[in-house]
């Protein structure tokens, strides 16, 4: 029994650990790491990286020898008769029909072919490393796009939850006021219209709360989908830390050539150059070595082994094959010119992308700066609205302010807090866009 107790506690611990893991609040780095490891989009990009190795192996196969084997077995129940002059058989002036061949014919041979010089194969081998790098960069860009998508949805969920917390506080205060007014009404110290107003206001707040709950559910489901997580998985989120976002972060200008989008476009241009060289390879001659070895059996009986009516013999050949292109109706020239157009278009795409990325940075930096100003302003406004609400509530309790003023102050406080939440989301989205233009989205993994 003493030996079994440690094993029992170990099993119990293994059962409890997943429960604790599920109750842990989902931070943004946790969400991003989960998405990068579980998202179907990220998996497909990694499969492309794996698949390019097989594509490279296919290209390399062109530089390796090709060996093939074949075999045949033929039975001729009726041999074809061939007419020959009678002079050959001692019957001048007549025609004799003679059957040539054997009833059974079997054979097996092996063929070998080896490229000695093929410009297209050489170009393909040179392009192999560029293809590998292209898919690696593409996978990196996919990760960045996934980080941008998941981060945006994650902050939307947090902001909606912040709105829900604000509304819950408002509902709690309104319910408390409504209870007090009902008590005053029952004592004859308040009007029925005051009770009705607070009841209507409370009902509207509950309706708003249900809308926010529905919005949170939809956004959480969207977040799980983006992360590649089962939709039924329950999630909890940490509270927003306001102090961490009231200071502007690094807004240094990036080198656009170092950004993933630009690297990918330049690598595409490099692959187009290799494509052009591969087409021009059709102008070059190609040289290959070929070899053939086979055995054949002929006889009037089934060719199994050696026998008096079966003859076996082997044969072999070795050759060099030279192919020199002379004229193909200017087909190659047309394809080269098309490749040149594709390269020129890619250069235009690269120039346009450079302008676009610089524009995106300028807009993101400006938007972040403005969003921070608005955020601070809305925070001050929410703080002031809270102060006005407390003063109005105090005055109402002392009979110095009507219920209308209290409800107006309460609505103003709710609006101010919602405006602050909207400003908070706008700031976070602007921050993500700036990190995107700087090529620093992966810094969110360590936030």
UniProtKB/TrEMBL annotation:
GO terms for molecular function: efflux transmembrane transporter activity; porin activity. InterPro entries: OMP_efflux, TolC-like. Gene3D superfamilies: Outer membrane efflux proteins (OEP). The keyword Transmembrane applies. One of its GO terms (cellular component) is efflux pump complex. Residues 1-21 form the signal peptide. It holds the Pfam family OEP. It comes from the Bacteria. It is found in: Cell outer membrane. Keywords: Cell outer membrane, Membrane, Signal, Transmembrane, Transmembrane beta strand, Transport. Belongs to the outer membrane factor (OMF) (TC 1.B.17) family. This is Putative RND-type efflux pump outer membrane protein. The lineage of its organism: Bacteria, Pseudomonadati, Bacteroidota, Chitinophagia, Chitinophagales.
């Amino acid at each position: 029994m003493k030996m079994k107790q440690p094993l029992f506690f170990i099993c119990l611990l293994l059962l409890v650990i997943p429960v604790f893991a599920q109750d842990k609040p989902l931070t943004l780095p946790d969400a991003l790491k989960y998405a990068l490891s579980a998202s179907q989009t990220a998996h497909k990009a990694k499969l492309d990286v794996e698949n390019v190795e097989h594509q490279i192996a296919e290209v390399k196969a062109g530089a390796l020898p090709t060996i093939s084997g074949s075999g045949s077995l033929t039975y001729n129940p009726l041999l074809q008769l061939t007419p020959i002059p009678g002079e050959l058989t001692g019957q001048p002036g007549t025609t004799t029909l003679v059957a040539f061949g054997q009833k059974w014919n079997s054979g097996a041979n092996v063929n070998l072919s080896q490229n000695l010089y093929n410009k297209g194969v050489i170009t393909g081998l040179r392009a192999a490393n560029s293809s590998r790098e292209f898919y690696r960069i593409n996978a990196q860009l996919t990760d960045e796009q996934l980080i941008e998508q998941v981060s945006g949805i994650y902050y939307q969920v947090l902001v909606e939850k912040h709105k829900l917390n604000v509304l819950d506080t408002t509902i709690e205060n309104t319910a408390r006021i409504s209870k007090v007014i009902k008590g005053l009404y029952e004592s004859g110290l308040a009007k029925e219209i005051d009770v009705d107003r607070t009841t209507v206001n409370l009902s509207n707040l509950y309706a708003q709360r249900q809308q926010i709950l529905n919005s949170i559910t939809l956004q959480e489901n969207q977040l799980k989908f983006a992360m590649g997580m089962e939709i039924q998985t329950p999630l909890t989120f940490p509270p927003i830390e306001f102090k961490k976002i009231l200071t502007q972060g690094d807004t240094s200008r990036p080198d656009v050539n170092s950004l993933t989008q630009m690297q990918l476009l330049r690598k595409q241009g490099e692959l187009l150059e290799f494509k052009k060289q591969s087409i021009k390879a059709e102008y070059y001659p190609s040289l290959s070595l070929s070899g053939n070895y086979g055995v054949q059996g002929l006889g009037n009986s089934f060719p199994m082994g050696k026998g008096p009516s079966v003859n076996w013999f082997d044969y072999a050949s070795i050759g060099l094959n030279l192919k020199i292109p002379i004229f193909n109706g200017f087909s190659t020239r047309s394809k080269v010119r098309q490749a040149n157009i594709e390269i020129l278009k890619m250069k235009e795409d690269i120039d346009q992308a450079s302008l676009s990325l610089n524009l995106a940075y300028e807009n993101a930096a400006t938007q972040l700066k403005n969003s921070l100003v608005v955020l601070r302003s809305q925070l001050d406004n929410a703080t002031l609205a809270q102060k006005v609400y407390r003063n109005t509530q105090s005055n109402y309790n002392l009979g110095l302010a009507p219920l209308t003023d209290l409800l107006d102050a309460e609505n103003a406080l709710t609006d101010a807090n919602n405006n602050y939440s909207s400003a908070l989301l706008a700031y976070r989205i602007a921050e993500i866009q700036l990190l995107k233009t700087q090529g620093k989205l992966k810094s969110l993994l360590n936030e």
